[in-house]
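Practice problem: ABC transporter substrate-binding protein
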Amino acid sequence: MKRCLAVAGAAVLLLSGCGAQEEPEQAAAGPVTIDYWLWDTAQQPQYQACADAFHKANPQYTVKITQYGWDDYWNTLTTAFVSGTAPDVFVGHLSRYPELAAQGQILPLDEYVTKDKVDLSIYQDGLADLWVAKDGKRYGLPKDFDTVAVIYNTDLLKKAGIKPEEMAELSWNPQDGGTYEKVIARLTVDKNGKRGDEPGFDKKNVATYGLGLNGSGAGFGQTEWSMYAMSNGWQYGDKNPWPTTFNYADPKFKETIKWFTSLIDKGYMPTMDIVSSGVGQIDAYGAGKYAMVTEGSWNTKTYWNLKGVKSALAPTPIGPTGKRASLFNGLADNISATSDNPDAAWAWVKFLGSPACQEDIVAKEAIVFPAIKTATVKAEQAFKDAGIDVKPFTMHVEQGTTHLAPIAEHWADITATMTETMDAIFSFKADVNSLDQANATVNGLFG
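Answer key — structure tokens:
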């Protein structure tokens, strides 16, 4: 990780929270240590650099960073809130903060924003608004945004006889998969050297899958199936943010998932047993087990750092709507309502949302796209300097093909229901019609 402004059916999403670098805070009564949690190990060094710069400007504050993996992060955070040991500040997610806000576990920032005259216009248009909950209060300042694209192994593409320019114009449909499925089939190779589009291909003994898989996607599917479903005309709910009904039983969603899981049945994509074997998507791709993957922009540098693999980016395929699609997701920093040092926590959150962190430090690392407009431009240049053309990610913002990640109440319960259902569908223990009951269960959460 681990993916806004909704306009005319498209959502442009960015996160941020603060203006130009502020003057050092007035000295506290004594030194204060601010506990800060995040989940992305790739981003930890850049935020440690921000913490060092923050301490230099504010010697009375020291930031202690703790990193957990995605699943452990949220489980540990939940336990910490129950036990009263939550960190002062932690990286929040659009799908998670509504529940935390409703439970009073995170601190509204409105008074701080007003008092310090934080300039929210420096962020990508509409991004800061996403962190205003149903109660009308603001709970975060945007830190970055992300979209989805295809990452492929250039050597395997060449061996398959596919030209890079073909990858830029692929299309898909739920009937036969379109040119996108043809490429996936061509890139798939069994252990006897037969390709997925050749007679004699053995789908039970595959050496390289044309398309990798990270999981079933539960009810979110950011890097798994969201780009296909949305380019097929589907939306998560009746509105976003704050939907009151979800559309997991929609025929457009069902046919999308039926097509997508058919890639597993055909041997073009790994089974759930392989996916859950303990070898992650990035490592499998690095080992040549996957010819291409659909990934979030936050993981780009990690793929480029894989030894012995040369990669390139391609946009998500054009769908039946005639457009591409990508979720537009992003992060912000939240302050625990139980923090013993809320003023110190705010000082850190404000710094994280400032050009001093996002533009002067984060952008130069070419890991994520910072939320501040000027920092985003610098990040694009940093990626380019590293030999990575990120156009397949940024084109969604430029062309208006982004869709807002779902911001909803009851997301933990929605995830539990949809994880069980989607895992069963992807494992062929249930068919797509099981989505009817799952959707009814989800909508029952909203009365």
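Discussion: The chain has two domains: 11-146+331-390, 148-327+407-444. Students who identified this feature from the tokens alone can consider the problem solved.
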